[in-house]
Amino acid sequence: MTKSLLDRVRGCTFDDFLFTPQLGEIPSRDPSVIDLTSSFTSSIRLRRPIVSANMDTVTRAPMAIVMAEEGGIGVIDRGYRPGDIDPQIVEVAAVKRTQHGIVTDPLSIPASARVGEARTAMHHARIGTLVVVDEDGRLAGLLTERDVRFVGDQVTVRDRMTPRQRLVVHAGRLTWPDAERRMVDAKVKKLPLVDADDRVIGLVTSRDLIKHREHPFATRDEHGRLRVAAAIGATGDFLERAAELLRVGADALVIDIAHGHSRVMERAMAAVRARFGDVPIVAGNVATAEGVTFLIERGADAVKVGIGPGGGCTTRLATNFGVPQVEALVRCHIAAGDRVPLIADGGVKRDGALVQALLFGGSTVMLGSAFAGTLETPGETVLKPVVVPESQKVVQVPFKVFRGMASVGAVRDRLDLEDADVDELDAIGAEGLEVSVPARGSARTVVQNMLKHVCSAISYGGATSLDGLRQAFAADPERFLVRLSASARAESFHR
Ligand code: XMP
Predict the structure, then answer these.
(1) Strand order in the sheet with 139-144
(2) Whose CA is nearest to atom 18 of ligand 1?
(3) Is 81 designated active site?
């Protein structure tokens, strides 16, 4: 990318451009055959360039699971009170335990425990199988959700488990394909792995096998578990939080603050690097060449780009600082070169903007409001009366809340300011909105539709893969760029 492209996009964002259609080269726009592989960090590759935002109304375990299954990744937010690290750990652990691979540290319960305890453990970790161990920690049996259904809390686990002698057990470690073969041959749904002392060293379930088949593009770690990233702050408990997140298997830390080009960030990155070595660090947010260079020089493995384009964001209104997102991406991409991937964060309101974010400099795209109201977002669904314009009838419509992480509500929840008066809340200087959005279906459908549209864009762009389209665009942006007049914008996007 060149300086002339930067001149072309100054002051511009997504709705300022269309791309000129090129000679189509691909026979099919099917996402299962078009390569969309992109880097999330220097070491983590995604088959799909989609990242769900670390916002407390967007990404908790259910969202992160869907993202990783679909080939992207979710970033679990840190929207919890300072010192309250456990809730975030639970979410990360739930993603890592979901399924998809050999569970190397399956949850265990003593045979002498009660069913009530087992039920709580299963519910807490969102899993359906516990390994039962004797007093010496040796495999005694397996207990599944079905074993405890309709059973009183006081019954002992020993009385409900399938005992060791009725299980097929494998001694030693196994590769994923061998585990699959072993389970198919033995016709079992669970395969515990034990060491020479009969201590449990892993568990494979048929759900894992099925999931592998169902989600061929999923983002997995070396053990076959889903990958997940997690946000930490730059002050307060961030080091302790990072240690705990890494302990339960977080694949990357996202040091996310509103103004990433700052001394606060510099100190935080140095501290995280000093303590945790080469763990993948995503840092942000920035919107300038100086900002991105600053973060790369301090060891970021990926940089989040976007100051103020977010759907729940009022930074530009409140402070007048920010850079239009397309200009920001181009500036940062020119500065970063191939040193680290950029994450285009915020402002994608329609699927067409996704491919723009990916061509103007984003290796991946982070989305918040695009997932608002989906099944996997946290928070309650509330019914609100809405008047249908055609019939003037009042119907009850389900809504969910979507809010910026710097909105008064999010900050209040985080800082334990329930009793704060109006002046105190004003003093927070909120830079985020809180809105109700209609509840809708799964984020999985949203992602799948996005990917279809990205593949269609690749076809219109005359390429055969996302990387191919990127290269063609970078080589000759003028061939693609159409700058829109106000009426062309209306013709294109106002429906
Ligand atoms: P979209 O447009 O996908 O953007 O909803 C998601 C991104 O918005 C940012 N974000 C905020 N920015 N004040 C801000 O200035 C806020 O309260 C706020 N909450 C989220 C964030 O970068 C997110 O990934």
Answers:
(1) 108-110, 129-133, 139-144, 162-163
(2) 404
(3) no
